[in-house]
Amino acid sequence: MRVLSAATFLIFFQAYMIAPLIPKLASVFHVSVQTIGLAVPLYMIPYGAATLFYGIVSDRVGRRPIILGSLALFVALTTLTALARSGGELVSWRLLTGLGASGVVPMGLALMGDLFPYEKRGRPLGWLFGAMAGGMAFGSTLGVLLEPLIGWRGLFVGVGALGLGCLILLARQGKLLGSERRGAPATTAGVFKAYSKLLADWRGTRTYTYVLFNAIFHSGVYTWLGLYFAQRYRLGEIGIGLALLGYGVPGFILGPVIGRAADRWGRRWLIPAGLAIAALAGTALIFDAPVLAAALMVTVLSLGYDMTQPLLAGIVTTLDPERGGQAMGLNVFALFTGFGLGSLIFGALRAPGFSRALLIFSVVQLLAALVAIPLYRSERRLPVGA
């Protein structure tokens, strides 16, 4: 679990170290911030799409070969990104990395569904989501803090080297990742039948829909926060990194605690509360508050994420126990598709200014929170052994 969490941390570290470096990379490659900004959605969307493939295959051959193979691709492609000679090459390497790296975390989450009963699943899922949150937080901050010292190329090489260490350690403990062939149908008809089953169930449709729209909100706001702090507060790279440090810290510290709370009390109040908290944080960023207050709202925004997506993933692990990989693959597809779409949509809406985009996103998120109250009222704590 520790090594898998470390690998998860690194994958999200490299995913999120890009956003605050957008102004720097645009200058390095002499292209617009909008062009370099494509490195975010063109990583996220292929990442989400590839999880559909990895989920199906892992149900057939087991979690271990997918986790180890995908981590190997992550190491290689992250390192090769350091060779980019133009903005176009950088974006292309990011696209390939998204395709290759997307089997580690989703199949790790599916593995938790294999190993733990639902009433005890919140805490291990909380560890993995906490590692994701930590990667987001420290990727955003350490990326811009280390870049002046080792350069942006050094960042990619360093992450690749650390990822190689995780790969070696995971390979040594490979039996703990599961090795059995699960025997799920591999025919096209069987795959589509399983997807139909997941989406025909109201609980599944509701959950996947909220995963998608919640991801659109968080990615849309977060992707452009580096530019937000650069334009509104005239912060440099280090200042931007420090301002974004709070995003991910709540999940990094409280992920297992939130997961345990879900196991103890259920998810019916936590999910709507998380949606509302994120909406209020987005609204607060509209106003010309002191920079420290804005940085605090970034932390509150992260808390909203940490109270929603991990708990929604917990629900997904119960939708089809026989095809947990496919169910989780669809979850991550919705999540990362939302990440990519959110970045594109917010980028388009921010043209007249950040306030308009923040207002639209926050109002929609608040409405989603209100609707979630009746929708999730049945997500009570299950009795042990149920």
Structure commentary:
By secondary structure, the chain is an all-alpha fold. It has a single domain, classed as MFS general substrate transporter like domains (Growth Hormone, Chain: A, Up-down Bundle), CATH 1.20.1250. It is 78% helix and 0% strand. The radius of gyration is 20 Å and the shape is globular.
Q: How many beta-strand elements?
A: 0
CATH architecture: Up-down Bundle
Shape: globular
Supply Rg.
20 Å
Q: Could you name the CATH homologous superfamily? A: MFS general substrate transporter like domains
Low-confidence stretches: none
Q: Based on helices, strands and strand pairing, what is the structural class?
A: mainly alpha
Instruction: Provide the CATH top-level class.
Output: Mainly Alpha
Report the biggest beta sheet as strand number plus sense, adding barrel if it closes.
none
Report the β-strand fraction as a percent range. Answer: under 5%
* Mean pLDDT across all amino acids: 86
Number of helices: 18
Question: How many domain regions?
Answer: 1
Helix content: over 70%
CATH fold group: Growth Hormone, Chain: A
Note the run of SSEs as H and E.
Answer: HHHHHHHHHHHHHHHHHH
The first-to-last residue Cα distance is 25 Å
